[in-house]
Amino acid sequence: MTTSRSWWLAGLVAGLAGLLTSYAAAMALTIRESPVVAVAELVIRWTPGPVAERAVELLGFADKAVLLVLIVVLVGLVFAWTGALARRRWWAPVLVYVVLTTVGAYAVLVQREAQTVDLVPVAVGFATWLVCLSLLTEPLRRHERAAVAATGEDPAAGADRRGFLVRMVLVAGVAAGLGIVGRAVGRGRRHVEQTRRLLKIVGVTKPDPSPAVRVGVEGVTPWVTAVEDFYLIHTAIVVPTIEPVDWRLRIHGLVDRVIELDYRDLISRQITESWITLNCVSNEVGGSLVGNAWWSGVRLADLLAEAGVRAGADAVLQTSEDGWTCATPLAALTDERNAMLAVAMNGKPLPIDHGFPVRTIVPGLYGYVSATKWVVDLEVTRFEDVEAFWTQRGWSEQGPVKIASRIDVPGSDDDLVAGDVRVAGMAWAQHTGIERVEVAVDGGPWQQAELAATPNVDTWVQWALTVPLEAGDHVLRVRATDRAGLVQTGVEAQPIPEGATGWHQVEVSVGEA
Ligand SMILES: Nc1nc2c(c(=O)[nH]1)N[C@H]1C(S)=C(S)[C@@H](COP(=O)(O)O)O[C@H]1N2
Ligand SMILES: [Mo]
């Protein structure tokens, strides 16, 4: 049975399994194409113009499909060859896999706006190859060893053959299944992405902030966070892809009237808009899990008033389409602040990863107790009656944001020369506002920084200060005071259970002028 053919077949099936799992991983994780498509794009990019034109002339719109088939056939041959290689030296196919993986990783990384996570499918493919090839060749190897040892008929040969066949069917079946699931996931996401792109919501605007929000220091964080740069936190491995026509929201619990809304009902209401800074409770002192955007949506206070909140309620249990929950203090949703069911971010419908089609945004609260993405259910309730995702895991029940300030420039690696140095960064205390930011050099007196403007108390603020620094090592520290007069504490606390505290500091080396 261990003809060369079995070895080739083992190599081919292991190889194709790797392509399929990497495709499934790509579909599950991103809207980006699989590594094979990335390689095809690379080939297209490297093809000399005249050759490409000739190909398009010959093949028309089928050119890319033909290229993909060609690539798969070519690597298919290589895969079969790895099977043959495995018969002699177990490490030889590993070398081939390393080469293929490197090519795939390179192709993925040179794509526009490539990110590190785009490498995950490539790694998944590599791991699949290693596991599947050893799985499939093991019975073959066992059989060959037995055949060499035995002179006559090998009694184990039948068992080896069955083992080989069973493993082939298993690997091929699982890989094909994953490929089909990946295709379904990818299609859903692509379709929702298309709907999102074409969506125009009446009442959603995109203003530029006043230039006065900038301190004008190079290297300081942009006051408006671009959607692509906005931090992402969610527990879902595959994020929900919800067509707006399928979206429903139920407001129920301790209310006089249950409200059910579809997407059209929601966006036909009055749209409220404002600049709001959102941050994560997991952010470390000086960390970057914070962003500022122009949010557009429908005021929750109005919806809750319509539902008629009953006496005794003090919380709203929010549920996401993915099952994630959080409990939000009712007061923050019904007072004068702009707590909203947001439908747009920076003037465009929410990106899928940021909660499309609808998420909650509440100024002044950490995301984990308020900013439910893909929100589908709001239950008016009491804190004592419910537990939410993160509170079950030891995080505090209510999550008002803490005063925070951060030094963006200079960085500890910057080349500085003695003399006046511009120090600048961000500070935030959403829904209270920042009153003052101060910087201390080497534990000296606190010196007041200039603050740029802010449109409201819900956003972060840029600050800057010029300090004279002599040559040598220095420690820069920052602290803020909010508009209620509370001074940011220097006592250091971990993010868990209710947000980090402590002063951000940067150590710098200043050279001779
Ligand atoms: N469905 C869902 N919504 C969620 C979360 C989540 O895990 N699942 N994480 C929350 C947390 S902890 C934060 S900080 C914010 C982050 O929002 P962003 O990813 O849009 O920046 O979303 C919140 N909403
Ligand atoms: Mo968070």
Short description:
The chain is α+β, with helices and mostly antiparallel strands. The chain has helices spanning 4-29, 35-46, 49-59, 63-88, 91-109, 120-149, 157-198, 263-267, 300-307, 330-334; strands at residues 248-253, 259-262, 272-279, 290-299, 315-320, 325-329, 340-345, 348-349, 359-361, 375-381, 404-409, 416-417, 419-428, 434-441, 447-448, 450-451, 461-469, 472-482, 504-511. The chain is built from ten helices and 19 strands.
Q: What are the key terms here?
A:
513 residues; alpha+beta; 5-stranded antiparallel sheet; binds ligand MTE; binds molybdenum atom
What does this structure look like?
Helices cover 36% and strands 22% of the residues. The chain has 513 residues and is of the alpha+beta class. The strands form four sheets. A five-stranded mixed β-sheet has the order 2-1-10-5-6. Strands 3, 4, 7, 8 and 9 form a five-stranded antiparallel β-sheet that branches. Helix 1 (4-29) crosses helix 4 and helix 4 (63-88) runs antiparallel to helix 5 (91-109). The N and C termini lie far apart (79 Å). The mean pLDDT is 93. The structure holds ligand MTE and molybdenum atom. Residues 233, 280-282, 366-368 line the site of molybdenum atom (MO). The site of the ligand Nc1nc2c(c(=O)[nH]1)N[C@H]1C(S)=C(S)[C@@H](COP(=O)(O)O)O[C@H]1N2 has 18 residues, from loops.
